[in-house]
Amino acid sequence: MNLSKKAEYALRATIHLGIASEIGLHTISAIDLAEVNRLPVKFVERILNELREAGIVDAKRGKSGGYFLAKPANQIGIGEIVRLMDGRLAPICCASENAYQRCSCPDEEHCGLRMVMIDVRNAIANILDRYTIANVVEVTLRKLRRDGLPHPFASLIAENEAPVSHKRKADPADGFLASLSQIALSTPEK
């Protein structure tokens, strides 16, 4: 399997839409997605249209318009996007479940190469289908926070001074000391 640039960019755009959603941004323009990913805007727009036609993303027109995930990030599989953009996951056509084509082998049923490539396809599918956009967003944001780095849209929020509804507020109940006191209250005294 060779991940095409189209599939790579579709995954990056979808992950970034998931990050935007997670940090409270309701929509992101194609221009901002392209800029964050350092990609050509026209290519990103074409990919977003394909993702929209597939029901993965949706768009809103107007001043506060842009793109957003059409369904929850935990319902969008990485494998789903790769298959949408690239078709088969198998390295050769005769090993594909979804895009099977007969090969030139005289005895396909007993072909050792085909058997190995089916195993390769299964391994790739098992990994790609195990993870969702939500999993990738969670790990990405966790690593950014761990390393003290801003999320990809930090400059966009500061630049546009997003409305309060777009900013994540710090709730005192989410603090470390509040969590410790909740643990202390729930632990019975001996």
Proportion in β-strands: under 5%
The total domain count is: 2
The overall pLDDT, averaged over residues, is: 82
Share in helix:
40-55%
Number of β-strand runs: 2
Give me the CATH superfamily of the largest domain.
Winged helix-like DNA-binding domain superfamily/Winged helix DNA-binding domain
| Oligomeric state | single chain
CATH architecture of the largest domain: Orthogonal Bundle
- Main sheet: strands, sense, barrel: 2 strands, antiparallel
Question: Widest sheet: strand order?
Answer: 1-2
Overall outline: elongated
CATH topology of the largest domain: Arc Repressor Mutant, subunit A
User: Order of SSEs, N→C?
Assistant: HHHEEHHHHH
Instruction: Detail the poorly predicted runs.
Output: 161-169, 174-184
Rg measurement, Å: 22 Å
Structural class label = mainly alpha
CATH top-level class of the largest domain: Mainly Alpha
> Termini separation (Å)?
60 Å
Features of the shown structure:
190 residues; mainly alpha; 8 helices; 4% strand
